[in-house]
Amino acid sequence: MKPLFPVNTHRKRKTRPSLANYKKPQSTVNPANEFLWGLIGLLLTIFTTFLPASITNLPWNWSHDGVLPESLGVTYQIGAVLLTGCMGGKNAGALAQIAYVILGLTWLPVFAHGGDWEYLKEPSFGYILGFIPGAWVCGLMAFRTRAKMETLAFSAICGLLVIHLCGLVYLIALSFLSPSQTLSPTSLPSFIVNYSLLPIPGQLVIICVIVAIAYFLRLILFY
Question: Does the keyword Plastid apply (predicted)?
């Protein structure tokens, strides 16, 4: 006898999502905003190269000493590099710094001590080269999720570490491959202290400022 209700033997099997079908969160920065932030990042990097960073003395001393600026021993340049990544993403951050390096090497005095191809022999040039991957890493990490203070802070710190890593590698290579009267394997430790260890506390203070700026700007701009 045939069944009153035919049995469907071709039931659809439930498919589980695979890793191949998983899509990572993508950046919400459109090409127009990337270009805009790349241009802003380039201008900020040039301008802040010559702008020393400072903070005020402790608030409870204001009544006695007044408001006095205290230098952080660095410029705001590192903040401009990381802010571009936090706001414009990896492409804007990297392109802004590529343009900065090209301008400096083509005899435009946008570096701290001028510019041209001779700047390749400067001990600090490795850190300038590190701006490119540092801004790229910062921008990549900053747009993996929605804007959060802790995410932006982690992104900026990752970018800062990449910059210092590139600078240290360049310093070591320069001291061994092209030693000079000032930079040599024997004087290398003092250069590492001056270019990496001493600036880090001031740069961390700047990161706190640019993370707050980037967070509120991204809230205002809805991305």
Answer: no
Helices within 49-148 (DSSP H only): 62-65, 77-105, 125-142
* Residue carrying structure tokens 């045939």: 2
Which domains are delineated in the chain? Answer: 30-58+66-221 (1.10.1760.20)
Q: How far is CA 84 from CA 53, 61, 74, 132, in A?
A: 18, 35, 18, 11
Phi, psi of 159 (to 5 degrees): -60, -40
Nearest-angstrom CA–CA distance, 120 and 118: 5
Q: Which residues contact 35 (CB under 8 A, 6 or more apart)?
A: 92
pLDDT in tens, 26-36: 456 788 889 99
Q: Are 210 and 86 in contact (CB under 8 A)?
A: yes
**Helix axis angle, 149-177 relative to 200-221, nearest 10°?**
140
Asked if 85 and 138 touch (Cβ cutoff 8 Å), the reply is: yes
- This prediction's pTM: 0.85
The helix (H) or strand (E) run that includes residue 55 is strand 52-56
Q: In whole angstroms, what is the distance from residue 131 CA to residue 97 CA?
A: 6
Residue 4's pLDDT is 54
Q: In b/e form, how buried is each residue of 132-159, taking b as 16+ CB within 10 angstroms? A: bbbbbbbbbbbbeeebeeebbbbbbbbb
